[in-house]
Design brief:
It contains eight helices and no strands. It has 192 residues and is an all-alpha fold.
Length: 192
């Protein structure tokens, strides 16, 4: 099977019609399995596996050793899962950190409680020092990587990671002080 996938990768890079769809069918079960087992309870495995496929298909030309496709795909999966877990950290506190209340079928009192929670989260964010707030928002709410944020802010990657750690700690202390606890709703990997 590995030789077949290597051939499909070559076909995809040459633009052979249908090659990418065949690669996606080969990669999806593997990526989905890894995401389900490694993602944790708050990561939607299907959503993460979809992101893995998108990255893999768009970065196919970066795969230098075709025979190492499995390790290459695993590396992509690890990075995608790390991004999904960072986002899940923020969603522990409120599902939508911007404060937009979606139509969830909730009644007026439930929508009011969600709106109040979003206001608390926004107030906590505003109470953080600006440098910590921007890193927390860029990394956790906008799902950007530490290297990407470091480049955006023109600061060392270690500074981004340090600020993010402190910002998360301060956020958690402030949220607990307001009586907020992380939402305990778990995201399953597609099964209910």
């Amino acid at each position: 099977m590995s030789a077949d996938i290597e051939g499909l990768i070559e076909d995809s890079l040459r633009g052979v019609p249908g090659a990418q769809e065949q690669i996606a069918r080969c990669f999806l079960p593997l990526a989905l399995g890894w995401c389900a087992r490694l993602g944790g309870p708050r990561v939607d495995a299907e959503d993460a596996a979809h992101d893995v496929l998108i990255v893999a298909l768009t970065r196919m030309g970066d795969l230098r050793q075709r025979a190492a496709w499995r390790a290459w795909l695993y590396g992509i999966t690890r990075r995608v899962l790390a991004r999904h877990r960072r986002t899940a950290w923020v969603r522990r506190w409120v599902d939508d950190v911007r404060g937009d209340i979606r139509d969830t079928g909730a009644g007026p009192s439930e929508r009011a409680a969600l709106s109040e929670r979003a206001r608390h989260v926004q107030a906590i964010l505003e109470g953080l020092p600006a440098k910590q707030r921007e890193v927390l928002v860029l990394c956790d709410a906008e799902e950007r990587t530490a290297p990407e944020v470091a480049a955006m802010l023109d600061i060392p990657e270690g500074t981004v990671r340090s600020r993010l750690r402190v910002a998360r700690q301060r956020f958690q202390v402030a949220a607990t002080g307001r009586g907020l606890e992380p939402e305990l709703q778990l995201v399953s990997g597609g099964a209910s």
